[in-house]
Amino acid sequence: MTAPQDKSSRYHQGMATRRSVLGGSYVDQAELAKTPFDEPFQDLITEAAWGHVWSRPNWTKRERSIVTIALLAALGHDEEVAMHVRATANTGATKEDLMEAMLHVAIYAGVPAANHAIKIAKDALKDREETQAEETQ
Concatenated DSSP letters for 49-86? Predict the structure, then answer.
């Protein structure tokens, strides 16, 4: 596998953004699970999604979070919806933001997609709140 110091500046920018959005422990686990087989894909998403798109200055992380969750919900990418809902703790997107996004999904992508994504979001928010409660005890 390629050593971190041999990665591009876009990769390093992406990794910093990825950590700020998803959290260090999540990214650390993903990095530990990385193999030579999926390293090229992981590098691609770190550079392109996180280093280029998520690192752009024009939108806040909150705005990117809302749009990302709506798109993932509309496309039925359930695991990604849950991951990005959990990440709202770091992006500043609120429960109200998520509901507004789901209303848009319902109208523009269909009620079943929104209904299912709302269930996923509720479960992810509940899990996040329980984890935060455990960490404060």
Answer: IIIIITT-SSS-HHHHHHHHHHHHHHHT-HHHHHHHHH
Q: Which amino acid is at 93?
A: A
pLDDT at 5: 81
pTM of the model: 0.91
Where are the domains positioned within the chain? Answer: 9-58, 60-137
Domain 60-137 fold is AhpD-like (1.20.1290)
Name the residue among 70, 26, 74, 33 with its Cα closest to residue 50. Answer: 26
* pLDDT tens for each residue of 13-35: 999 999 999 999 999 999 999 99
Under 8 Å between Cβ of 67 and 36: no
Confidence of residue 39 (pLDDT cuts 50, 70, 90): very high
Q: Is the Cβ–Cβ distance between 102 and 117 less than 8 Å? A: yes
**CA-based radius of gyration for the chain:** 16
